[in-house]
Amino acid sequence: MTEQKRRFFEINSTTATFIGADSVIVGNIRGAGHFVVSGEVHGDGDLQGGLHLSSTGSWHGFIRAQHAIIAGKITGGLSVREKLEIGYTAVIHGKVSARTMAIAKGAIVDGEIEVTSGAPVLQFDEKRDG
Fold this sequence. Notes:
15 strands; globular
């Protein structure tokens, strides 16, 4: 029997930090662990863990993270040290860089794309909701 592929947030057992859909955070965010953002952030992010920006989430600033799944809107840019997945509902204005990257058909990236490993950008059809 083959093991089912899992998103990295489904594998990790630590408790995530949540920013709810009706929340607006103004200021820089820094921390370890996973962050799930469904609301709005105005400021830069320095995240030692992962980021899941949901389809209702928006981030205005530059974000650094270990891993990321992006389904919302980013204005500013994103640097991911490992794996980046950009969903079909994502809209990103700014430079995007990651060691490996997968972009769903329908996603909008308005800026430079850099894959630091030299691997090709993978394109896919989104099978999950944002």
